[in-house]
From TrEMBL:
Protein name per UniProt: Protein ASPARTIC PROTEASE IN GUARD CELL 2
Protease recorded as keyword: yes
UniProt keywords, alphabetically: Hydrolase, Protease, Signal
Family of this protein: Belongs to the peptidase A1 family.
InterPro entries: PEPTIDASE_A1 (IPR033121), Peptidase_aspartic_dom_sf (IPR021109), Plant_Aspart_Prot_A1 (IPR051708), TAXi_C (IPR032799), TAXi_N (IPR032861)
Keyword Protease set for record: yes
Transmembrane annotation, as ranges: none
PANTHER family per the UniProt record, alphabetical: OS07G0603500 PROTEIN-RELATED (PTHR47967), PROTEIN ASPARTIC PROTEASE IN GUARD CELL 1-LIKE (PTHR47967:SF60)
One of the record's GO molecular function terms: peptidase activity
One matching Pfam family: TAXi_N
Residue ranges annotated for the Peptidase A1 domain, each copy included: 1-304
C-alpha cells in the first residue's frame, strides 16, 4: 500500500514570454511544410494554425527568434507567436515542443538527449529541463520506439501494469504498434492524465477499486469515474500502482500521481481516463516528481523517481 497525504493544489503562473517578429528567411519558408496549416504572404511573413488533440488551438505568426538558455543563445529558432490561443492554455506563457518532429525545440537544437522533471503545482521549486545531459546510472529504463506513421510521438516499450503488486491481465499487444501504425502507447508531457483504451482502463480501474474499497466514495467528476471523499482524513492508504518494462524493470508511482485532488473540500479521483483512440498516452500527472530522460541516440527512456 502507499500513503496518500492530502494536499490542495494552487496554480501560480510565474513566467512571461516576449517575442520579437523577424522578417521571413528562406529557411523559415521551407519549415512551413512541417506545419498542419500555414501560409506565407507577399510581405515575406508567414502565419500558422496548429490544433491539439484536446481541442485547443493556436493561430499566429510563424517567426524566427533568438532563444537564450542561461548564458547560451540559439539564433534563428522557428517558433509560433500566437495571437489567437484557445483551449487549455490558461496560466501558461506558451508551449515548448519537445517531440520528435523537425520543428520541435529539441530537434532545432540538434540535442541527442534531453530530460525534464515536473514538480507539483503547489511546489516552491521550479520544473527543470536539461539538454545533452547523461542518463543517470540509476535510471529505470524502457525502450523508446518510433512509428513511421506518426514520427512526432515518443512511443514507450510498456509491457504491463500492476496494482497492489499484482500484474494485471492485460495483453502486451495492447501497448504495441501494429503493422498499420495503429495502437501503442506514447509518453507525453503535454497531456495531463494517462489515457487508456476501454478494456485496459476497466481492468486497471476495477483492480484499484477492489484494493481501495474501504475508502468512502464520491460522485464522478468530469472525466473521472472513480472518486473518493477524503475530507475527514489527512492521509489514507491506497493500492500501489506500477508500470512494467522489458527485462523485468518496474516504475512504481507515488500515490499522488494517481490520486488527484479535484476540488478544495477533499474530493480525490483516480487520475486515469478513457480514450476512444487506439493510441494510449502516459500523461504528465503520472510523471510528476520523476526525472524523465530521453536518450534519442540509444532509443531509450529513463525514469529517476524523486529527482527534481
Amino acid at each position: 500500500m502507499r500513503t496518500l497525504h492530502r494536499l490542495l493544489p494552487t496554480i501560480r503562473p510565474d513566467f512571461r514570454a516576449i517575442f520579437i517578429i523577424f522578417l521571413l528567411a528562406a529557411e523559415l519558408r521551407n519549415a512551413t511544410k512541417y506545419l498542419d496549416d500555414s501560409e506565407c504572404r507577399n510581405d515575406r511573413t508567414c502565419v500558422y494554425e496548429v490544433s491539439y488533440g484536446d481541442g485547443s488551438y493556436t493561430v499566429g505568426d510563424f517567426v524566427t527568434e533568438t532563444i537564450t538558455l542561461g548564458s547560451d543563445s540559439v539564433n534563428n529558432v522557428a517558433i509560433g507567436c500566437g495571437h489567437n490561443n484557445e483551449g487549455l492554455f490558461v496560466g501558461a506563457g506558451g508551449l515548448l515542443g519537445l517531440d520528435g518532429g523537425p520543428l520541435s525545440f529539441s530537434s532545432q537544437l540538434n540535442a541527442s538527449t534531453f530530460s525534464y522533471c515536473l514538480v507539483d503545482r503547489d511546489s516552491d521549486s521550479a520544473s527543470t529541463l536539461e539538454f545533452d545531459s547523461a542518463l543517470p546510472p540509476n535510471a529505470i529504463t524502457a525502450p523508446l520506439l518510433r512509428n513511421h506513421q506518426l514520427d512526432t510521438f515518443y512511443y514507450l516499450g510498456l509491457t504491463g501494469v500492476s496494482v497492489g503488486g499484482e500484474l494485471l491481465p492485460i495483453p502486451e499487444s495492447v501497448f504495441q504498434i501494429d503493422e498499420s501504425g495503429n495502437g501503442g502507447i506514447i509518453i507525453d508531457s503535454g497531456t495531463a492524465m494517462t489515457r487508456l483504451q476501454t478494456d485496459t482502463y476497466n481492468v486497471l480501474r476495477d483492480a484499484f477499486v477492489k484494493g481501495s474499497k474501504r475508502l468512502p466514495s464520491a460522485d464522478n467528476v468530469a472525466l473521472f469515474d472513480t472518486c473518493y471523499n477524503l475530507s475527514s482524513t489527512s492521509s489514507v492508504d491506497v493500492p500501489t500502482l506500477s508500470f512494467h518494462f522489458p527485462e523485468g524493470k518496474v516504475l512504481p508511482l507515488p500515490a499522488k500521481n494517481y490520486m488527484m485532488p479535484v476540488d478544495s473540500v477533499g474530493t480525490f479521483c483516480f487520475a486515469f481516463a478513457l480514450t476512444s483512440s487506439t493510441l494510449s498516452i502516459i500523461g504528465n500527472v503520472q510523471q510528476k516528481g520523476t526525472r524523465v530522460d530521453f536518450d534519442l541516440g540509444n532509443s531509450c527512456v529513463g525514469f529517476v523517481p524523486n529527482k527534481c
